[in-house]
Specification:
417 residues; four-stranded antiparallel β-sheet; 13 helices; 12 strands; 38% helix
């Protein structure tokens, strides 16, 4: 009976999403061995619609790189034939995306309202931001730092005990709409802050000595769209002049090597850099807030998924940042802390060499603004579920990530500049 109820709950949750069906869509993983095989992937992308999951842009594919991509049901056989014919080794990571989409909603937690162990719609998250501030007036306050293209307010939570001359850490989630585990972590972090303040010595010291600015969802319009129309949507929902293609990749829209390596100037591409830096209302609001608070913000943490990485600048150039040694050491210890809980393996390093080059990212921009401690988390997993991480993994993912974030925050507190 209980299993049946869980299935019904999952069906209700995913019925929410059903404008676009992903029945029969497959996610492939290939590791091209040489330039010829890279060329095969390029030609594949040129003759059909290919949704690149990892890396997120076909031009970044190179030999020996793990490449994950999604193709529609009617193209799957053609893709398999082409790969076999050209002796490209492949495996099918997800055989039917629609099944995986339903399977996300596997949480056993019973809840009709907001839940920290479920994926929440934007309406639930927005209501939660008001509730958490109202229930914890001495620790949490809520403000609006701008609005999205479609007119939704960008809610920012400020966590910390009131004090004078406090330095701050800025953390955001939900840059890319389909990375649902990301906003789940921002909510979890706020929960842990208010629930463990006064009992957990580290959290208590952090909130007494620092402020945390938490932006639970950057790309709200895109996030809403993943719940209502297209679960695989990545970009914002702004209109682009001269084309029917919608949206900009908000994490290619910052003035840090803007629209160079690893970003596209084509509006139909998933890594479209926008018409100019900060062309998106969401990125402009975020950047404006950080610029206004540059004297106090000492660390910038941005949460993405998937691939289990802890990255630091630079992504727009292969050059190392001047603080490379210190950032590398922090990342090394932070990943150790993270791994200590469930043995989840993370790789760390500068973005361009550790994952792939990507121009216009918020972490590089923040670092170039003078925020030394700038890090990007790529949360679970490494591809078995990809962007469809089951709800049953929200709690362990957030618990382990929290250990790394608390370590970084404590380090920042001890090394204020």
């Amino acid at each position: 009976m209980w299993a049946f109820l869980v299935l019904i709950g999952a069906a209700v949750a995913s019925a929410h999403l059903q404008d676009l069906t992903f029945d029969g869509h497959k996610v492939f993983r290939v590791i091209p061995q040489n330039d010829e095989q890279v060329e095969i992937i390029h030609s594949l992308a040129s003759i059909m619609q290919v949704d690149f999951w990892q890396p997120d842009y076909v031009d970044l594919v190179k030999p020996k790189m793990q490449v994950d991509f999604r193709v529609e049901a009617d193209k799957a056989l053609e893709v398999e034939h082409l790969l076999k014919e050209n002796k490209v080794d492949y495996k099918v990571l997800i055989d039917n995306l629609q099944t995986a989409l339903h399977a996300q909603f596997d949480s056993k937690v019973r809840s009709t309202g907001h839940s920290y162990e479920k994926y929440n719609t934007w309406d639930k998250i927005a209501a939660w931001t008001a509730d958490i501030a109202a229930q914890n007036p001495t620790l949490v306050s809520r403000s609006v730092i701008g609005e999205t293209y479609e007119g939704r307010p960008l809610y920012l939570l400020k966590l910390g005990k009131s004090g004078t001359n406090k330095k701050a850490i800025f953390m955001d989630c939900g840059f890319h709409a389909r990375e649902w585990i990301s906003p789940a972590f921002c909510q979890w972090f706020v929960k842990e802050a208010v629930e463990t303040y006064g009992t957990d010595s580290t959290m208590t010291e952090l909130l007494n000595s620092l402020d945390f600015y938490v932006l639970p969802v950057v790309n709200i319009d895109g996030y809403v769209y993943t719940w209502t129309n297209d679960r695989m949507w990545r970009k914002t929902r702004s209109k682009n002049t001269g084309t029917f293609c919608i949206g900009t990749d908000p994490n290619r829209n910052f003035n840090a090597g803007w629209c160079q390596l690893g970003a596209s100037n084509r509006p139909c591409d998933s890594t479209y850099c926008g018409s100019s830096p900060e062309s998106e209302k969401e990125t402009k609001a975020l950047a404006d807030f950080i610029r206004e608070h540059l004297s106090t913000i000492k660390a910038y943490l941005t949460i993405h998924s998937y691939s289990q990485l802890l990255l630091f600048p630079y992504s727009y150039t292969y050059a190392h940042p001047k603080d490379y040694n210190e950032l590398n050491t922090i990342a090394s210890v932070a990943t150790e802390k993270l791994t200590s809980l469930y043995n989840t393996k993370y790789v760390y390093g500068p973005g361009a060499t550790t994952i792939y080059p990507a121009a216009g990212g918020s972490d590089d921009w923040a670092y170039d603004q003078g925020i030394k401690y700038s890090f990007t988390f790529e949360l679970r997993d490494t591809g078995n579920y990809g962007f469809l991480l089951p709800e049953s993994q929200i709690k362990p993912t957030c618990e382990e990530t929290l250990l790394a974030v608390k370590y970084i925050a404590s380090y920042v507190l001890d090394h204020l500049y």
